[in-house]
């Protein structure tokens, strides 16, 4: 869903409610990955003498620290394929 569509279809109050709900009961990739890693570690540890922790089975480890705004912007630009603006020299036209 685009930002514009989200703002058109959902009120600020409803968006705030969803944000609060997510802070209490998160969902998404990291939660799913954590549940899969937990189940995998339980199954693995029942079969071997020296077990592994859940973190060793995570496909997407959590970030070590929150990203700054600048880091988030740079990562978004990199993911979207943004090319930094460069100054081009003006070429003289041959006649």
Observed structural traits:
95 residues; 4 helices; 52% helix; 0% strand; flat
In short:
By secondary structure, the chain is an all-alpha fold. 52% of the residues lie in helices and 0% in strands.
Structure description:
With 95 residues, the protein is mainly α. It has a domain at 3-63. 52% of the residues lie in helices and 0% in strands. The protein is built from four helices and no strands. The chain has helices spanning 3-9, 12-24, 29-45, 69-80. The longest helix is centred in the middle third of the chain and has 17 residues, at 29-45. The mean pLDDT is 79.
Instruction: Determine the mean pLDDT.
Output: 79
What does the radius of gyration come to? Answer: 23 Å
Q: Could you give a short account of the major beta sheet?
A: none
* Contiguous uncertain segments of 5+ residues: none
Shape: flat
Proportion of residues in extended strands: under 5%
Amino-to-carboxy terminus distance: 51 Å
Secondary structure: helix percent: 40-55%
Number of DSSP E strands? 0
Helix/strand structural class: mainly alpha
Number of helices: 4
- Helix/strand order, N-terminal first: HHHH
């Amino acid at each position: 869903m685009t930002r514009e569509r989200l703002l058109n279809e959902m009120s600020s109050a409803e968006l705030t409610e969803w944000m609060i709900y997510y802070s209490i009961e998160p969902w998404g990739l990291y939660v799913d990955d954590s549940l899969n890693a937990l189940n995998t570690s339980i199954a693995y540890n029942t079969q071997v003498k020296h077990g592994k922790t859940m973190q060793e089975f995570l496909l997407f480890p959590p970030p070590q620290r929150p990203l700054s705004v600048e880091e988030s912007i740079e990562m978004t630009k990199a993911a979207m394929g943004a090319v930094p603006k460069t100054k081009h020299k003006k070429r003289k036209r041959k006649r």
